[in-house]
From TrEMBL:
Enzyme superclass (EC): transferase
InterPro entries: Glutathione-S-Trfase_C-like, Glutathione-S-Trfase_C_sf, Glutathione_S-Trfase, Glutathione_S-Trfase_N, GST_C, Thioredoxin-like_sf
GO molecular function, a single term: glutathione transferase activity
UniProt name for this protein: glutathione transferase
Domain GST C-terminal intervals: 88-210
Catalytic activity, EC: 2.5.1.18
Gene3D superfamilies for this protein: 1.20.1050.10, Glutaredoxin (3.40.30.10)
Gene: 6033865
Assembly, per entry: Homodimer.
Domain GST N-terminal, residue spans: 1-80
UniProt-listed PANTHER family: GLUTATHIONE S TRANSFERASE D10, ISOFORM A-RELATED
Organism: Culex quinquefasciatus (Southern house mosquito)
Catalytically driven reaction(s): RX + glutathione = an S-substituted glutathione + a halide anion + H(+)
Similarity comment: family membership: Belongs to the GST superfamily. Theta family.
Entries under Pfam families matching the protein: GST_C, GST_N_3
Length: 215
């Protein structure tokens, strides 16, 4: 399988984490602004939105990290009732809710708050910050109901969410400490996910260097 990605992209981190959990091998293809010509055209053919990650599995291509997580579980987990994505309808519904919460709220608001740094050199507005705090408050509440984001076992929802919280950590969002359940869960995931150090933590310095150049 080819995975078009960038090593400091949080959504890509989630896919890499699942790859390690399932012992999958990806043919990694880095996509950045230096990739042009035929290589860029090939990538755009697979994903007209020009976004990473994009997975190509034989004649099938799909973008959006959370969709990729679900696809990999369905196609390559070796079981249709894997603990990371259990088959029970209520369990899957909760996992899908948390994935959509990450896509539409947690990561979206983190990106909206921090991404102005590499456009204008400053973070977002106070209103953007409060929206991010609200999203973290929701995650804090969810983690008050269960040990992990979508129940009492690690699932692909945790992989997506931990990538988003890692993004906040990279950006040195000190207010993370104000959410004790999120902080405890974050540290637990960092310790339990066997690919976290290589796929995520080892990229922190490069990610921070990328951000610092715009300040």
């Amino acid at each position: 399988m080819d995975l078009y990605y960038h090593p400091i992209s949080p959504p890509c981190w989630a896919v890499l984490l699942l790859g390690r959990e399932l012992n999958l091998t990806f043919n990694l293809k880095v996509i950045d602004n230096s990739v042009q010509g035929a290589a860029r055209e090939t990538f755009v053919k697979f994903n007209p939105q020009h976004q990473v990650p994009t997975l190509v599995d034989g004649d099938f291509a799909i973008g959006e990290s959370r969709a990729i997580l679900s696809y990999l579980m369905d196609a390559h987990a070796g079981s249709d009732d894997h603990p990371l994505y259990p088959r029970a309808p209520k369990s899957r519904a909760l996992i899908q809710h948390r994935l959509n919460f990450d896509l539409g709220m947690l990561y979206r608001r983190a990106y909206d708050y921090f991404s102005p740094i590499w456009r204008s050199g400053t973070i977002g507005t106070d209103a953007d910050r409060e929206k991010l705090r609200e999203a973290l408050g929701f995650l804090e509440e969810y983690l008050g109901r269960s040990e992990y984001a979508a129940g009492d076992r690690l699932t692909i929802a945790d992989l997506a969410l931990v990538a988003s919280v890692s993004f906040m950590d990279v950006c040195r969002f000190e207010e993370l400490a104000s959410y004790p359940k999120v902080s405890t869960w974050y540290e637990r995931c960092r310790e339990e996910l066997k690919g976290y150090q290589e796929a995520v933590a080892d990229q922190f310095s490069d990610a921070r260097a990328f951000i610092e150049q715009f300040k």
